[in-house]
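Structure (tokenized):
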């Protein structure tokens, strides 16, 4: 197989971490018998500087014609003063929309070597390995009517609307069940069905998809969002796949991410259309840009997600995740996860050590 990867490094530490990601992909391709072809382009602030806008048509076309998109990070103080409509982050929203990416996958895995980086006790977080599947293009962030209106008495009224249709729920439920099959076969669907009618429908449709689409091998449970927020802190190990709405997913995925204590370790994937988009959760980290201090492991784990979900190379993905574990177990750390007694290394060396581990 020959896969075309659109590489959009973006701004700040984006190019530094993405370089480690592409080098790892090339190594994995050589080892596992497939080919990758990279096409690199400007996006975000770098694209504003060169073309006056954060995402140009040729770059969008490139993304659409690829098998997967690898994104670094966008934004930084240089572009903070620009109008919201042409800010670097607009490129991210435009890519999501144009590529039809309705499912955001955020795995949260605690590497035991890093358990002390969490604010929770080791015995609570150790063994945490969950995946939040967040609906990305519907719900209260997009529902109509929305806005703030003036009332006759001079006060104001703010409105947002939680809206979900059957097809929107069906497709995200399928993503969650399929993802669970590649993991530990358990889905917890999170809603507020006791209060919100839109999520009562959510629960009904998820239950039906589970029953009628042959997902009997996957265990399904339902949980109210307030309980889920508590359970994530009380006993995160009970979760395998969490599937939920746009807003609940936004909040719960950040809560779950903090179980690991380090933003430099968190990968993400956005799926739905023909092309998947893969990016580390962190931003462009202007404070450490160009200093070889960035942690490339979020991007390296993002590459593993790409291999698993877009390139059908699950074995290579497993090997990369294991290599990360091994390098951490050997005591190598970038500055953001540095601990006493560990060996401090830079972005390049961390990337190189993971590459060497996979063979
Ligand atoms: N998806 C994206 O492209 C994305 C996401 C978040 C923020 N941003 C943008 O990034 C810029 C900076 O935002 P911010 O400072 O709020 O968030 P940030 O994630 O860039 O940085 C927060 C802190 O975490 C550290 N950090 C982040 N990633 C790291 C890594 N890989 N290794 C080591 N340390 C790391 C940074 O040094 C900083 O101290 C802003 O312009 C923001 O809009 C972009």
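Design, position by position:
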């Amino acid at each position: 197989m020959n896969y075309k990867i659109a590489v959009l490094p973006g701004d700040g530490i984006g190019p530094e971490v993405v370089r480690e990601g592409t080098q790892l992909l090339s190594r994995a391709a050589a080892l596992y018998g497939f080919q990758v072809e990279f096409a690199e382009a400007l996006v975000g602030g770098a694209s504003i500087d060169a073309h006056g806008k954060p995402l140009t048509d040729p770059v969008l076309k490139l993304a659409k014609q690829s098998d997967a998109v690898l994104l670094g990070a966008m934004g930084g103080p240089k572009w903070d003063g620009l109008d919201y409509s042409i800010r670097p982050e607009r490129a991210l929203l435009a890519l999501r929309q144009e590529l039809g990416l309705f499912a955001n996958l955020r795995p949260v895995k605690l590497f035991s070597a890093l358990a002390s980086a969490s604010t929770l006790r080791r015995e609570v977080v150790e063994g945490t390995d969950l995946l939040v599947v967040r609906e990305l293009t519907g719900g209260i962030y997009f529902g109509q009517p929305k806005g703030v209106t003036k009332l006759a008495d001079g006060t104001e009224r703010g409105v947002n609307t939680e809206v979900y249709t059957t097809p929107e729920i069906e497709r995200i439920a399928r993503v969650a069940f399929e993802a669970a099959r590649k993991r530990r076969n358990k889905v917890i669907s999170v809603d507020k069905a006791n209060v919100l009618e839109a999520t009562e429908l959510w629960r009904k449709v998820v239950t039906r998809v589970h029953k009628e689409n042959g997902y009997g091998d996957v265990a399904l449970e339902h949980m109210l969002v307030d309980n889920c927020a508590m359970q994530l802190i009380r006993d995160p190990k009970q979760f395998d796949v969490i599937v939920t709405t746009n807003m609940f997913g936004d909040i719960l995925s950040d809560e779950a991410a903090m179980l690991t204590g380090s933003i430099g370790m968190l990968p993400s994937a956005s799926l739905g259309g023909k092309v998947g988009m893969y990016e580390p959760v962190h931003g462009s980290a202007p404070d450490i840009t160009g200093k070889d201090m960035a942690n490339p492991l979020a991007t390296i784990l993002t590459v593993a997600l790409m291999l698993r979900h877009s390139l059908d190379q699950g074995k290579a993905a497993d090997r990369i995740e294991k290599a990360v574990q091994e390098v951490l177990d050997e005591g190598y750390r970038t500055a953001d996860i540095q601990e006493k007694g560990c060996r401090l290394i830079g972005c390049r060396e961390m990337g190189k050590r993971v590459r060497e581990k996979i063979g």
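Reviewer-requested clarification: DSSP finds twelve helices and 14 strands in the chain. The mean pLDDT is 95.
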